[in-house]
User: Fold these one by one.
Assistant:
Number 1:
Amino acid sequence: MTSEALLSARGLRVVIDGLHILHGVDLDVAPTGVTALLGRNGAGKTTTVKAVMGLVPRTGDIRFAGRDVGRLPTHAVVRQGIGYAPEDRGVFAGLTVAENLRLAERDADPAYPFVYELFPELRSRGRQLAGTLSGGQQQMLAIGRTLLNANRLIVADEPTKGLAPKIVAEVADVLARVAERVPVLLVEQNLALVRRVAGTCTVLADGRTAHQGDAAELLADEEAARRLLGVGGGHPVAASSIATAAPAVAAASAATATATATKEAP
Amino acid sequence: MSTVTSSTPPTPAVPSPSPPSSATGAPARTARIALLRWWPLALFGVLAVLPYGTVRVPGLLDGPVGSPGSLQLLALCLVFGGLATSYDLLLGRTGLLSFGHALYFAAGLYFTDLAMLEWRLPLASAALVGIGGAAVLSVLLGAVSLRVTGIGFAMVTLAFAQAGAILVQRNPGGVTGGEEGRAAPSDLLPGSLIGIENTPNLYWIALAYLALTLAVVHWTSSSPTGRVWAGIRENERRVEVLGLRPYGFKLVALAVAGTLAGVGGVVYLLLTGGATPQAAGSDTTLSLLVMVVLGGSGTRWGPVLGGVLYTWAAHRLGDLANSSAIADLPGVLRVPLSQPLFLLGSLFVGVVYLLPGGLAKLSSRWRPIRGGLTA
Amino acid sequence: MATVVLLACTGLGLGALYFLIASGLSLIFGLMDVLNLAHGALLSVGAYATWWGAAQAGLNYWLALAFGTAFGTVAAVVLELVLIRPLYTRPRDQILATVGVGLAVPALLMGIWGGDARPFPQPESLAGTVHIAGAAVPVNRFVLIGAAALVLVALRLFLARTRYGLIVRAGVEDRAMVTALGVDVRKAFTLVFAIGGAAAALGGGLAALYFGSVNPGQGANLLIFAFVVVVMGGMGSVAGAAAAAVAVGLVQQFANYYTADGLGDLAVVALLAVLVLARPRELTGRLA
Ligand SMILES: Nc1ncnc2c1ncn2[C@@H]1O[C@H](COP(=O)(O)OP(=O)(O)O)[C@@H](O)[C@H]1O
Ligand SMILES: [Mg+2]
């Protein structure tokens, strides 16, 4: 797996203001499909992603498509072909939707048709200030920005966080479609969504890599899932029971996502 | 002894009897450790007897160390060493970038002077008025300016300090004396503090002030409050997470530092015999900032070192500028060399660039080498 | 009435000066988090370069002003490239470096041209007065107001219509996110410094006209009121800076005239204190 990984990090460490946040994270992102980055709250998922992007001071080895990107500044990392949708969505509230998109343009001919096809609302609301969008619309904008350019990897940090169940299902659909074109590194708490889209996964605990392997296998192993992710009940792992430890909204959204998945299954 | 003085202000009078006792062995090492521990006391002891010194240090000081002129300059150096130390309580210990510290220095200076001039109070009572005024002012203005954080705080403190400087300069009701300032009334000052033959007394007061600020800053920073200050400096959010409100702790830091600056104002008044508006100007605050950064912010001795060096350099460079050696130089060299502030400003930029952590950092870099040599 | 008109025009003229300094400060701070204490030095550089052009090199006022502005722009770019950029990862040291420059540059000017004010030759065409509602208002007030208005419009167009303007507006909101879109913000930094330096140097050349003289401390004095304007207007906001500059200029003039001289300056600071107490949150504003 290591040899063919699109993105691989070894011994990633992050210290912020004297606080040791990551103590050695190993991460491999598969060259196709969705790789999930999992772990409890505060495990260091967001920090790992930021370290890859060069948004926090980091040490360790980071290779992307065969190139050492561990010492590049953020903009140079991005220009290697990485689209990043951060945890708080990173939408510029004081800019219009169209301006948010325009700012993200790097290629000579940005893929507006594809973005507008996925998210028709981004076109119709082009002149609206992004700060006045709903959470779901802002998330669409954040993902849309990553799709404008011919990226080789999309990094999405908890794209379903705080969204209504119906919107979660829409985001899940989009991620599934995107993953057909571009590999995705997905940070996600919603395990039903992970089960639906992810192939491989990396699990973090306390700033370290605790597990790497097949996502479905991990989620099927009740004991491992509980130990690594703090979830799972006394029943065989099913979508509903996976979600029981998560907040109510997540539980509901998990159910919806599963429902969508079932509906779409041939 | 020689190993010790290199990390402290240059004390020209020290006869530096570098002991060639390369005696190795346990007793010698214990003695060295004891010396390292107690060197500040030894240093203050040496500083205390400087007025009796007859040594000449050509280049560093004009007359003998104990002469009134030299003592006056040394005393000024000590006062600014103390002021810089009080300023570093904000900058280095709490992480507050205040541009208003000169205001409290000027408050101590002017309130004391005016209490004597206008209310005919004796020096001791006037000094209490001055210090109390500085303390109250620092709490009041601190309470307002701390409502904004970060750079906003820096700008608001600068605006307040500037308001003070304008107030002093505009001479409201003829009280502050405007550009000229006002001389302290000699009839209200004790005889032992007036006259050139009493310069040693003033020098000792300045030395006592430096010791006081060092003690207060050391004591408060190692208190529980001081540990919260350190937390605020490192990461304010983390302090909030612990359930503490940084606002109150920062206000205490401002009050302590402001009061110490007020005391410095009183000492400065005695030393210079009057209050002048330069004390309130923004250049004074910026100079304090330069001193602290030059010496080493957040260290115990760095601000003292910076304050002493800066004050000494500003005076000596001023003398140099007026000397014939400079006047005869070609313009390209004469112009920059005749401007102490140009040289100091450039030196400061250089230090910021090449020596983050200031001169104190330099000494800690040398320490292992020294240790290796003397062990 | 005549007095009121004269005071208003003078206050607006002063506000125009404040705006020219504050707009650049505000953008630099908003985008880069750099409190540029050398901004007053840039104004002084512009003022002396304009004075040199007009008094020494014999240029007419407009050419001298263009020369002074260009000189200040170059100085600002050099400052950014040589001093600010290498300290990019040390924000506090960036501020400290500008403190050093803010001390050194006026001292250098003093070393070259002396500490006393140098009279600025008033151009014939701008020496007269305009009569409005019975008040004889010096023409130079309108030059200042006009220049500031032009700069305001130009800045708004730059921010609204150009890609770099977009980058600046976004960067004021969230600089890290701009880099995370693959934008190299350092170019925008240099550009913003150049714009700020140009505005400040232009302000210096106009201040020379307004005060009728240049002196090394001019920049530092104006800088402090510009800080007040920046804080009041919301850091990073050009429109906010414009509104605050007008308010500060007017309050200062009227209070100085109708109360004691000097009280106007204090009134401005009091206004700032009230604002800080009333709405501390909003003082770290957005670009508008
Ligand atoms: N800038 C920061 N300052 C201090 N602590 C931080 C900072 N960023 C993250 N942390 C801490 O590091 C840990 C990991 O955070 P994060 O990477 O956001 O976790 P996750 O995304 O897995 O929930 C948390 O305990 C968090 O509080
Ligand atoms: Mg996270």
Number 2:
Amino acid sequence: MSWAETLRAAVEAIRAHRLRSALTMVGIVIGISSVVLTVGLGQGAQREVEDQISALGSNLLIVSPGSSTDSAGVRGGFGSASTLTVGDAAAIADEDVAPDVEAVAPVSSSQTSLIAGESNWTTSLIGTTTSWQDVRARELASGRFFTDSELERGAEVVVLGPDTASELFERGSPVGQDITIAGSRATVIGVLASTGSSASGSSEDDVAVVPLSTAQAITGTTSTSVSTIYVEARTGDTLAAAYQEIQALLLTGHGVSATDADFSISTQESLVETANATNRTLTVLLGGVAGISLLVGGIGVMNIMLVSVTERIREIGLRKALGATPSVIGRQFLVEASVLGLAGGAIGVMVAVVGAQTLPALIDQPVSLSAVAVTAALGTSLALGVGFGVYPATRAARLTPIDALRSD
Amino acid sequence: MSAAARRGRSAQRTRGANTAPVIELEGVRKVYRSGEIEFEALRGVDVAIDEGEYVAVVGPSGSGKSTLMNILGCLDVATSGRYLLAGEDVSAMSERELALVRNRRIGFVFQQFHLLPSKSAWRNVELPLVYAGVPRTERRDRAVAALERVGLGERIDNRPGEMSGGQQQRVAVARALVTEPALILADEPTGNLDSASTADVFGLLDDLHAHGRTVVVITHDHEVADRAPRNLVVRDGLVTEDRRFVAVGGVRR
Ligand SMILES: Nc1ncnc2c1ncn2[C@@H]1O[C@H](COP(=O)(O)OP(=O)(O)O)[C@@H](O)[C@H]1O
Ligand SMILES: Nc1ncnc2c1ncn2[C@@H]1O[C@H](COP(=O)(O)OP(=O)(O)O)[C@@H](O)[C@H]1O
Ligand SMILES: [Mg+2]
Ligand SMILES: [Mg+2]
């Protein structure tokens, strides 16, 4: 019996037992699609974070405040108080002390509400210096960024992120319009271009950028502390050198040893790594859940396959009586199970593809399907079909024809 | 052609040919085991059947007729003893070789028909040809020819569920003869049939015998047994009588 003949017979047998075949496939479809989708969700989240971080630029060092030790020797928790000041930023900008630093942008950020006419919108207010635009590598879609003199005199000007601008102004150009920031009036002088990172609605595009001095006036603070200091190294190659320089400078400036450092410096690479570690945990977790559903689906498949073979032992006996060898019987069930498994797997992958298209719209999470997950899923469904279909069939094929014919 | 005339012809040929027997059983025993319980269904059977013979196997229910027939048809294996089929020792054969023997040499007709319910008549009949490796188009031609031979040329596309018992058994006979096997075995082929269908089926078996096939049939039908040139009587797992009727001038004595 040729393979083509066997394949035709398999398709015929599957169609002859429609309900049973459908039930078998449902188990596989559920298992496969959930595995592919959950793995896709994990990978989508990972890719999103990677995109966001790579949008930061590879020359970038981010100095964040760390735990601080107060005069009584009590260490505060991470981020409990900002230990970074405008003075630190100025020190890092000193070319003699940190020759590998290209530019420095201290940032103080807080949540504020913006009002433009009838619309209001809450977003993060970023108070920074003119070098922010270069350090963060941001383009302007329209208007201009603020100038050094505006920074010095604390001018009431604001540059909006593209998403912020569209939230506040449905029509017309925002440039030249006045808005109210936490009760203070400011004129919009520019709108940033979108970062273009895949994650739309990322906070990078929803900001209001004002001169540092203006931010202090708006929030009514006299403190010189900042939330973050962004540092651009001269090149990607001098990143490590710049890191060393900043660390030495801040340790000396704050009078602490490396073990008591009240700040931390991260690079894009280290951020990616941390994010990936988190996402890997997530993916493993989701994959575990999906694996369990695949297992449950597999047990369903096993049940139906076992029932199917038991029901068909008489058929196996008859075929043997008419001259089928055990290997031909084994091959028949192998092909049947493979066709069922692969068809179920293929439908499962299709369901996953459709899910990957529709899910992001529903839960605002990107899903990225991977060829590896799809291949592994198809392989698994094939293995399930074969494992649970062929083994009992070859056992049945070892019975004498009359024993198989007499079974019920 | 009358049954008596057929019997006469085959009797002459059996006498004249003097060939090696197609079936030779020596001390065949069959023990069924179910758990602790053993049951000896055949207790040492010696039988030889020549090519072209027509043998009716008779005996009371439970005497071991089916057990014997299943061994003859290579559907089951003897617990001990020797079975030579056309001179070859069956007991030494592998599963594969046994399948080949069943496919090429034997056509088996069961009391319960054993047709595949999801397949049409011709698809049921072609099955042995599938395992013989006959190409698809030839299979259909031969299956249709076999169905015509049993008088079902009009029903080739019907499924077993759409046919009467007699028709189903004729499909089963067509399946047994489609490979042109030398040996036709039938275990109470008319046990589930009415008398008209019974006559049909035995008519077909007679016809096969007339065309030179060796036919062994289990029957409770005295008329059928009486018409057969040779009767094997099985009692208690032994062949207790081997009656041969020599036809002289078309009359059995
Ligand atoms: N598979 C089996 N397991 C146990 N005992 C069996 C089996 N098949 C038949 N027998 C027993 O063997 C004896 C002969 O059975 P069988 O050959 O079917 O008789 P017959 O066909 O002459 O009616 C019976 O007593 C029957 O109960
Ligand atoms: N379900 C069916 N579909 C088509 N034809 C049928 C069906 N059942 C019976 N027949 C036909 O009706 C006729 C009589 O059938 P039935 O009474 O079963 O015959 P029997 O006397 O052999 O038992 C037969 O020719 C059979 O083919
Ligand atoms: Mg019987
Ligand atoms: Mg009827």
